Amino acid sequence: MSLFGTNYKFHTGYALSGGGAKGFAHLGALNVLESKGLKPHVIAGTSAGALAGVFYADGFHPDEIADLFTGKEFREFIGFSMPKQGFFKTSGLFHFLKKNLRARTFEDLQIPFISVVTDWKRARTVSFYQGNQLIEAVIASCSIPVFFQPQYIDGIPYVDGGLFKNLPVSVIREQCKYVIAINVNSLMPYCEDAGIKKMVERTFNLMSNSNTLIDKKLCDILIEMEGLDKFTIFDINNLKEIKKIGYETASSKMDEPKSKHIIRRCLRHKELESKINRWINQTSPL
Question: In the prediction, which pLDDT does 1 show?
Answer without folding.
Answer: 47
